[in-house]
C-alpha cells in the first residue's frame, strides 16, 4: 500500500514554484497512473512576494487538496523555511538550498541541503531552471515518480527553444538528489 | 459584502486552462487585494486528456479550495460542457465557445457563447492565446477583477516575445465579453 505523499513547495514569486508542483502532479498522473491534487493559496503572503504550492499524490482518490503537515517540504527562501519548517512531519524530508537558506538542524526531518542555485548559475549563467533542478532532486530523493515520467512532463511543458535547458536542469537536480540520498544523513 | 466567486475552467490539456486560472487568481490577489485559492485535481479524466482548474476568489480567507457548484463555468470542449454544465449554480454564468461546443440552452444559467477560437485563429493564425482570450471575457463578464489588474498579471507572466500577442488575445476576449454583457440574454 502506497503512503499518501504530501508535498509543499515554498519560496518566492518568480522562482517557478507552481510550475514545479504542476509538473510533478502531471508526471504522477499522466505517466504513473496515480492521482494528484495541486493547489495554491494566495493571500496577504503572496502580496509580500511569497509563493507556496501544495501537491498530494496517492494511488487512491484525493479529496482534500491542501497540505497541513508535509512529508516533503521544499523551501527556496529563508522566509519560507522559517515559516514552514516547523510544519514538516517527523521523519519527513526537507529539501532546501545552501545559498538561499541557512538551516537550523534541530528539525526532526531528514535534510537535503543542496547547492541548486550555485550549480544552476554556474552551468546556465543565471538562476533560471532552479525550479526544475529542485524538481529533479525531489524525484531522486522521494522516488514518488520515475525519472522517465518526469522527463516526459518537463519535455512536454517547454517548447523546443527551452526544452534542452530545462532537461539539463532536471538532470542536475537528479544528480544532486542522488548523491544526497546515498550519503549518510 | 462581496459574494464568494467560484469559478471552474474546463477543457482539454494543452488549452492553457491552468494558466488562465492562475493568472485570474494572481490578478485578484496581487492587484485587487482579494484572497484566492486555485487548484487542480488530476486523475483518470486527466489521462483521457481532460483539464479542469478551480478558482475561488473572495474578500475573506478561503479555506476549502475546490468548487462544487460554480458561479462561473468555462467550458472549452464538448466533453467538459457535457460533464460540468449540470453543476452550475442557478443564475450562474456559462462561458463557452461557438466552434468548440454545441450548447443545450435549457441550462438555468446566463450563457456567453462566444467565437473565441474563430477570432483567435483569424487574428493570430493559430489557436494559441485561446486561454488568455477567454480570460479577458471572464473579466469583462464578471468584473471580478479589473482590466488593468489582469493586464498586469498577463504582462508579468510572459516574456517580451510573447507579451504583446497575449495582451492582444486578452483584449479580444474583453471585447467579446463586453459585447455579450451589454446584449440582452
Account of the protein in words:
The structure is a homodimer of 185-residue chains. Chain A has helices spanning 17-31, 44-47, 78-84, 116-124, 130-142, 147-157, 160-182, and strands spanning 5-12, 35-42, 50-58, 72-75, 92-97, 109-114. Chain A has 185 residues and is an alpha/beta fold. Chain A has a domain at 5-114 and 152-163: Pyruvate-ferredoxin oxidoreductase, PFOR, domain III (Pyruvate-ferredoxin Oxidoreductase, domain 3). The model of chain A has no long low-confidence stretch (mean pLDDT 91). At the A-B interface, helix 1 and strand 2 of A face helix 1 and strand 2 of B. Chains A, B: This is 2-oxoglutarate ferredoxin oxidoreductase subunit gamma. Chains A, B: Its EC number is 1.2.7.3.
Could you name the key traits of this structure?
globular; Pyruvate-ferredoxin Oxidoreductase, domain 3; alpha/beta; six-stranded mixed beta sheet; 7 helices; homodimer
Query: How many strands in all of chain A?
Result: 6
Q: How large is the share of residues in beta strands of chain A?
A: 15-25%
How is the CATH topology of the domain at 5-114 and 152-163 in chain A named?
Pyruvate-ferredoxin Oxidoreductase, domain 3
Structural class of chain A: alpha/beta
Return residue spans of chain A where pLDDT drops below 50 for at least 5 consecutive residues.
none
Give helix and strand order of chain A, one letter per element, not per position.
EHEHEEHEEHHHH
General shape of chain A? globular
CATH class term of the domain at 5-114 and 152-163 in chain A: Alpha Beta
Amino acid at each position: 500500500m502506497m503512503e499518501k505523499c504530501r508535498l509543499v513547495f515554498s519560496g518566492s514569486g518568480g522562482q517557478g514554484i507552481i510550475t514545479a508542483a504542476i509538473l510533478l502532479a502531471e508526471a504522477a498522473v499522466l505517466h504513473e497512473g496515480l492521482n494528484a491534487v495541486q493547489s495554491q493559496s494566495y493571500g496577504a503572503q503572496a502580496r509580500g512576494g511569497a509563493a507556496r504550492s501544495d501537491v498530494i499524490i496517492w494511488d487512491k482518490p484525493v479529496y482534500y487538496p491542501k497540505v497541513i503537515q508535509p512529508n516533503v517540504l521544499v523551501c527556496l527562501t529563508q522566509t519560507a523555511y522559517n515559516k514552514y519548517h516547523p510544519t514538516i512531519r517527523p521523519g519527513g524530508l526537507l529539501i532546501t538550498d545552501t545559498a538561499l537558506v541557512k538551516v537550523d538542524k534541530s528539525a526532526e526531518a531528514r535534510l537535503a541541503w543542496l547547492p541548486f542555485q550555485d550549480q544552476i548559475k554556474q552551468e546556465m549563467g543565471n538562476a533560471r531552471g532552479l525550479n526544475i533542478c529542485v524538481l529533479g532532486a525531489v524525484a531522486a530523493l522521494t522516488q514518488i515518480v520515475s525519472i522517465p515520467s518526469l522527463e516526459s512532463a518537463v519535455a512536454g511543458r517547454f517548447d523546443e527553444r527551452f526544452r534542452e535547458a530545462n532537461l539539463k536542469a532536471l538532470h542536475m537536480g537528479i544528480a544532486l538528489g542522488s548523491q544526497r540520498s546515498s550519503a549518510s544523513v
